[in-house]
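for the recovery benchmark. tokens below, seq after
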């Protein structure tokens, strides 16, 4: 492969890992085996969002293409979730961190109630947890699911930043263009060296 080829391979692999890392570490909802999972500490649930009036039965993990009525659904993976109080809250994302906001950033917000757009107080929901909210417009939000274990000593919270009304393609086209630019430059340099 040569000196330039191995350098290029390391660069492409490094960039791929750097770009993929935020996707895997993003919030409390992850895509695993074509299923969206939300993790509250050691507890897991399948997580789906529906926009029934705007998009029918189409399912979303986080980002929603339309500002409309949304139904948030959690199907428990751990039976314990059917016996524990679950609280659900959606706030406007005022952290300035976009999709990189975490629980620590939410805790730094002075008045959580002032930025809350939807709150379902803690309650035991035996079967499938659902909550409905009507989004009035585009924006960035943070969803929070909090479970209080029976011991009551430590609440388990999942935080997932998401956007509403965004239909763009994101950063992937820019990444592909950057990789193509690097490959063309390496090819030109190798050609000049010969």
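predicted aa per position
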């Amino acid at each position: 492969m040569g000196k330039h080829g191995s350098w290029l391979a390391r660069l492409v692999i490094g960039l791929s890992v750097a770009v993929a890392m935020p996707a895997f570490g993003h919030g409390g909802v992850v895509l695993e085996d074509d299923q969206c999972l939300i993790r509250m500490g050691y507890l897991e649930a399948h997580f789906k969002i529906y926009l029934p009036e705007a998009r029918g039965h189409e399912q979303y993990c986080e980002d929603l293409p339309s500002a409309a009525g949304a139904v948030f659904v959690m199907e428990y993976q751990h039976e314990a979730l059917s016996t524990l109080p679950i609280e659900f809250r959606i706030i406007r994302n005022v952290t300035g961190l976009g999709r990189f906001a975490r629980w620590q950033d939410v805790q730094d917000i002075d008045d959580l109630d002032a930025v809350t757009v939807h709150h379902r107080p803690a309650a035991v929901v035996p079967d499938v947890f659902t909550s409905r909210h009507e989004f009035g417009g585009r924006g960035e939000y943070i969803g929070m699911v909090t479970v209080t274990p029976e011991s009551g000593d430590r609440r388990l919270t999942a935080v997932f930043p998401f956007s509403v009304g965004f239909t763009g393609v994101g950063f992937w086209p820019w990444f592909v263009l950057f990789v193509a630019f690097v490959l063309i430059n390496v090819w030109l340099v190798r050609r000049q060296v010969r």
